[in-house]
Amino acid sequence: MVNTPRKKLAILISGRGSNMEAILNSTRQAYYPAEICLVISDNKDAAGLDTARNANIKASAFQRCDYETRLEHEAAIMNAINSACADIVCLAGYMRILSADFTKTYEGKLINIHPSLLPKYKGLETHQRAIDAGDKEHGCTVHFVNSEMDGGEIIAQAKVPILKTDTADTLSARVLVEEHKLYSKVIADLAKF
Ligand code: GAR
After folding, report:
1. Which residues make beta-bridge pairs with 137?
2. What are the residue numbers of the active site?
């Protein structure tokens, strides 16, 4: 069997980092075709930074308030991604809208996970909006990122039923379980090419 090098992932987070941790756990499988080379957060207090550091993964905070312009902030992040030689850039709860320049730079290798069945419910509070609309099902989407928020080509989705008793919290907890499985699977599929 030919031993192909594992693809390098840069993961951008803003907080808890449970998707990043699920990907990290997947990379511990012997035949998983990718590894994390860098975790970046726009929030120095993001819990996910500690998770990454405890796993001996380089983890850096780039806070917007430390840069005069959005352009300089993004340039610093791009510089870190390029220095780490990342093959795939994964947004995993990164709650900042990226410029068209950024999304163009990583076109085709920049992906995001979003907690809804896109194109439904772009943006925030997706779980409550799905409940309020009386939807029977909800879920998550992994998609390529382009300059339109939550608007890039859909790669894969996972669905969960909405129960009569669901609150935004109970529904988001069930969707999150699917997010963790879906993101690792999509990354593995992309990394094989
Ligand atoms: C996840 O549910 C992710 O889908 C969502 O933020 C959460 C981050 O959780 N992302 C978005 O809403 C982006 N539009 P995590 O930090 O535990 O992975």
Report:
1. 161
2. 114
Q: Give the residue, out of 18, 19, 49, 142, with the most ligand 1 atoms within 8 A of its beta carbon, to mutate for a pocket test.
A: 19
- Name the residue with tokens 């994964």: 90
126-177 per-position pLDDT tens digit: 999 999 999 999 999 999 999 999 999 999 999 999 999 999 999 999 999 9
CA–CA dist 106, 134 (Å, integer) = 37
**In-domain check, residue 1:** no
Work out which ligand 1 atom sits closest to the CA atom of 94: 13
- Domain extent at residue 50: 7-191
Cα–Cα distance between 79 and 94 in angstroms, integer?
Answer: 17
pLDDT (0 to 100) of residue 2: 53
